[in-house]
Amino acid sequence: MENNSNNQNQANTPLQNNIGDDEIDLRELFTAIWQGKWIIIAVTTLFAVASVFYAINQPNIYKSEALLAPAEQDKAGGLGALSGQFGGLASLAGVNLGSGGGIDKTQMALEVLKSRKFTSEFIQKHNILPDLMAVKSWESEKNTIIYNQEVYNKAENKWLRKVKSPFKPKPSMQEAFKVFSQVVNADVSKESGMVSISIEHLSPYIAKQWVDWLVVDLNKTMKERDVVEANKSTEFLMNQLENTKIADIRAVLYKLVEEQAKIIMFANVRDEYVFKTIDPALVPEVKFKPKRAVICVIGVLLGMMLSLMVVLLKHFSKKHSDK
C-alpha cells in the first residue's frame, strides 16, 4: 500500500509541475513589464506624437442643420372621401380613385433627396462641383475657399485631375453623388416626426447655404411633381366628361376635377409645400469634427497596448526558448 501511494504521488508530481508552469505569475508579469518599461515608453510616446501630428493636420469640418416640420397633407379627405362615396360609379367610367390611403410626402421627399437624379440636378443647378470635389481648406479671416491646385484651377475653371479611364479630369455626376451622400444627412425623429437636414463642409458658410438650397429645392421639386400629375389627371378627367352622359358619373368626375384644382392651387400659393422650416440653418461658429482630443487619447492607448504586447511576447518567448 505504501509503495502504491508513493508511486501515485510521483505520478501526480509532473502534472502539478506542468500546471504550475502553465499558470501566469502576476509577479513575473509585472517584472516583465518593468524590464520592458523603456520599450513601452518609447512606443507609447511615438504613437502619442503621431496621433497629435495627425489630429493637428486634420481640417476643421463644420456642420449646419435645419429643423423642419412636415407640411400638413390631406390624406383622409379629398380623393379618399370620394373613393368611399363614388368608387363604384367611377369604376363604371373607367376611373380608378385608389384606396384613399394617401401618400407619405415626407418620406417621398427624403427619398428624392437621396436620389441620383435630384443630387445631380442640385449640383449642376448651383454649380457646386468644385466646392464639393476640390476644396483643400478654408480661410476664416477672409472667408475664402482654397482649392487643391492639382485637382482644380479656379482662375481658368479647369479640372486637372490625373485619373485613369473611364474617369475624366472633371468628376462625373456618379462620383459627385457618392461624395455628396457622405456630407448630407437627413433624419426623422420617431417621437416628434420632425425632420433635420444637415450638411458637413470645410466652410461653415457653404454648409449653411447648401442646407438652405436643399430645403427650397426639395419643396419646389415635390410641388412640381404634384402639379404635373394634377394637370395630367385633370386632362384625363375632362376627356372622360366629354364621353360620359350619365349624370351620377359626371358628378363624380366634376368632384375629381375640383380636387385636382385644389392641389394645383395649394401648390401655387405655398412655397413650403412639403417641409415647413421650424429652425433655419445657421453659420456654425464651432467645428463639428475632428475630435482632436479623442484622436490623441486613442493613439496613446493603441501605443500602450501594442508595446505591452511586444514586451510580454518577447519575455515569454525567451522564457520558453531557455527551457
UniProtKB/TrEMBL annotation:
<dbReference type="Pfam" id="PF13807">
    <property type="entry name" value="GNVR"/>
</dbReference>
<keyword id="KW-0472">Membrane</keyword>
<keyword id="KW-1003">Cell membrane</keyword>
<dbReference type="Pfam" id="PF02706">
    <property type="entry name" value="Wzz"/>
</dbReference>
<keyword id="KW-1133">Transmembrane helix</keyword>
<feature type="transmembrane region" description="Helical">
    <location>
        <begin position="293"/>
        <end position="313"/>
    </location>
</feature>
<feature type="transmembrane region" description="Helical">
    <location>
        <begin position="38"/>
        <end position="56"/>
    </location>
</feature>
<feature type="domain" description="Polysaccharide chain length determinant N-terminal">
    <location>
        <begin position="22"/>
        <end position="125"/>
    </location>
</feature>
<feature type="domain" description="Tyrosine-protein kinase G-rich">
    <location>
        <begin position="276"/>
        <end position="315"/>
    </location>
</feature>
<protein>
    <submittedName>
        <fullName>Lipopolysaccharide biosynthesis protein</fullName>
    </submittedName>
</protein>
<dbReference type="InterPro" id="IPR050445">
    <property type="entry name" value="Bact_polysacc_biosynth/exp"/>
</dbReference>
<dbReference type="InterPro" id="IPR003856">
    <property type="entry name" value="LPS_length_determ_N"/>
</dbReference>
<dbReference type="InterPro" id="IPR032807">
    <property type="entry name" value="GNVR"/>
</dbReference>
<keyword id="KW-0812">Transmembrane</keyword>
